[in-house]
Amino acid sequence: MKLITPTIHGYLDYLTVVVFLAAPKLLELDGLAASLSWTLAGVHLALTLVTDFPLGWRPWLPFWIHGWVERIVGPALVLIAFLPNFSSSSLAFGFYVFMGLVIVAVGWLTDYSSGAKQALRPIG
To answer: Where are the domains of the chain?
Structure first.
């Protein structure tokens, strides 16, 4: 049984957007680390807004595909943390490892098979 419902996942997605927006200022990230954080905020907001789940604004993308995107992004953030531009700053390194692991954990705990507002379901 998955603990995170589509509605809770939606709230966590919007919280993730706020965290990515605020991190550069709060953690004094600069350069590539700050730019990537702001870019991820925009991409995550767009992904959330177009996902077919209770908190999506224009349900177009099936929720299970949203889940696959996060299954790629989470581990990618952990790997990005080890790049020289990120690993040289302990705050940038820690932030990207933490966010990557949080996204992976949320992905493991989310029920991606329910919650669609429309009849967009995976085949099979």
So the answer is: 6-109
